[in-house]
Amino acid sequence: MNAPPPLTIEEVLMIFLLIFEVAVYSLPTHAVSGIHISADMKLIKIWYDHDAPRDVNNIHAFPPGLAHLAPVLAKKDLCDTFCALMGPYVQPILQELFGATVRVIQFIPRPALQIIQNEHDLQPRAHTVLEVTMNDGRVLFMDGTSEQFGWDRDSTWLRPMSDVVAYHMHTAEGFNYLTEAELEEDHALVLVADQGYWVFAAEKMEEAIGELDWEVLREMVRNEREEYVKALATAKFQEVIQV
Asked: What is the residue extent of each domain of the chain?
């Protein structure tokens, strides 16, 4: 029997994205108590019920017709979290398998829609992604939180840098590469966010990544592999703490 083909870079990176997404959707949040949508559907203001306890199911509790907002809200402001926690795992595996390098890069996005809580959220803020440079010179952006801007996940989570420049960034602002000191500061801030949830989540994601059997994953078809990874990560988050 012929050996299964090696995983592509997209297939490898999807594994890390799926593990991160399990962590995102396991985060207990306050329930949304109010929603106001602008006439052009591009600006959505939300209010939370801070008197009720946080619950992992709240992120999915949107009124009929608004379920598409769940991933927008779930990933809001988590781009630094994604890069800080997943970047250290992505870098060595891509270097080993593809000779690729990974850097953390920021740009000012052009959202298709925005979810806001206050006027401060209207101010342009940098969006953080992983820049993957292949050994043939191609540059890809891995975006773990693209949905927060109303962008379609399947077409924007991994794409050429040129696509981001053409469609999804304010080019006048350019790019900013984070220094080691800035990366360390971001990592420290991430771990104290959401009342310490990401300390717990980082441990569970590390456990899931450590149990990946890459040879077994190679033998699986796409759907089977993705369901396996999600199930593995979900099992780690069954004991979600109340924050």
From this structure: 9-29+69-236
Its pTM stands at: 0.93
Q: What are the angstrom distances between the C-alpha of 158 and each of 100, 129, 131? A: 15, 10, 10
What span, in angstroms and rounded, lies between the C-alpha atoms of 36 and 115? Answer: 10
Strand 43-49 vs strand 139-142: parallel, antiparallel, or unpaired? unpaired
Contacts of 171 (CB under 8 A, 6+ apart): 165
| CA distances in angstroms from 36 to 32, 42, 60, 168, listed in the order given | 11, 11, 17, 25
Q: Are 137 and 115 in contact (CB under 8 A)?
A: no
Q: Per-residue b/e over 141-167, b at no fewer than 16 CB within 10 Å?
A: bbbbbbbbbbbeeeebbbbebeebeee
Q: How many residues does the chain have?
A: 243
pLDDT averaged per 10 residues, the chain (length 243): 80 98 94 87 88 83 82 94 97 96 98 88 91 96 97 97 95 94 96 92 96 95 97 89 46
